[in-house]
Amino acid sequence: xxxxxxxxxxxxxxxxxxGHDALRRAARRHGAGLxxxxxxxxxxxxxxxxxxxxxxxxxxxxxxxxxxxxxxxxRALQPLAAxxxxxxxxxxxxxxxxxxxxxxxxxxxxxxxxxxxLLALPGLADLRGRRLGFITAPDGRNLLVPTLEARGxxxxxxxxxxxxxxxxxxxxLEALASLQAPACLLLxxxxxxxxxxxxxxxxxxxxxxxxxxxxxxERLARTAEEAGFARVVLADGPRPAQLMKAACTIGPxxxx
Length: 256
Fold this sequence. Notes:
This protein has helices at 21-29, 48-58, 68-77, 93-102, 115-119, 144-150, 170-177, 190-199, 202-209, 218-226, 240-254, and strands at residues 9-13, 32-36, 40-44, 62-65, 87-90, 131-136, 154-159, 161-165, 183-187, 213-215, 232-234. By secondary structure, the protein is α/β, with parallel strands linked by helices. The chain has two domains: 9-39 and 166-254, Rossmann fold, CATH 3.40.50.10090; 43-163, Rossmann fold (3-Layer(aba) Sandwich). The longest helix is centred in the last third of the chain and has 15 residues, at 240-254.
């Protein structure tokens, strides 16, 4: 048997360790390979203080949850179920789907799947006198809580998981350095980009910044531009299919 034909082009994923499979499958459907540069791993919190914070958050009339990782971490601590009249909000469709799998049937999420989109949902403009549970990571969705509090909400924050920094794998750095095919960066986390840029050796950082970026939101597009990336394409959202659809507007012929 001969060797498999190498991909015509690559996408680079900065998702947490073990979180690349869906993107890899989406890339393969478009003839692209995936290079994983994971700057961190997800660690669930399992202590009395976190359990108490989660109970308080889940007791609120409105519950906001920021990621599928937050759903998984919360679900590991206690079953998730919506009370009568309780409103559950997710930042995006992936988080909403994770909540439905966990047993919360009615979940709202915005068409624009980012913090700004969630803040524009009906009923969140005036939150005076409302208790709001916010389930996330320590640095998760920094824009949301101050804005929700400014609108009058009493926010009960439960930080149910941590992002543990990792050194970039030597094998991944070697693959990046030896990459001959065209490549673009898929960006769904500004924090991950900062972590990767801080670790890249100078010999690779310059080349990395010449790659086109597919950003999952306008905020992330600005983050990429501020980090020195010259070519940024905006995707419709953070889902793998959305990121790859935008990447294909560049395609291997358009990537230098």
